[in-house]
Amino acid sequence: MQRHDLVKHLHELLQVSKIRDYCPNGLQVEGRAEIKKVLCGVTASQALLDQAVRLQVDAVIVHHGYFWKSEAPEITGMKKRRLQTLLKHDINLLAYHLPLDVHPTLGNNAQLGTLFGFADIQLLTTIDPLGVVQFADLVAPRSLADLSTTIEAHLGRRVFSHDAGIGDIQRIAWCTGGGQGYIDAAFAAGAQLFISGEVSEQTIHSANEQGIHFIAAGHHATERYGIKALSAYLQQQLGLDSQFIDIDNPA
Fold first, then answer.
1. Where residue 68 falls among pLDDT bands split at 50, 70, 90?
2. How many domains are there within the chain?
């Protein structure tokens, strides 16, 4: 598949032009023109790039790429080594941040909700872009301890769980990654539990003072599933030799 065709296809599939973001979405580093073999991962770390070189792939596709809004522009140190690896081996780098969070089927939020077994998933319409916070109502109320155990089993890791003292949970809202700041919007939507990847100091105050349980399940851990689903899509729908590699990160 030609690079131009893949970039165009993903641009349309993930509706990139409709979403404002903090980084460029799409092709970030240009490599060879023809793409047959792809490696997908959460973050374009040096460890993932080393795997790309070992596997002799034509493109790396990630959720966390480069050139963030607040990033220093100098090409030195770690950034220089990463870019040098890509350019030396003529490997394309494509990144999709918010578009891969909010996609209705491939997105991190949709995939996480499905993984946890939530049914009739809804989008919180008060937050832009649409789909960055999602919620679902449980068939029967469950305790925070019970849900925490279930989530840990699905993710294969321990989670941080904060009990706000409000009892059982009927409605759950979530935003993968660093979405802890949406806890207030989750409470306003009637959720008794908000799940995100990270926790901040102020998150606990919001939870206690408003009365909403909170779980931080890991930034990396909660954002593995969108890019994994995209890798499967590339394999099944576009016929590319694509694989997902999980470079573990405890954060």
1. very high
2. 2
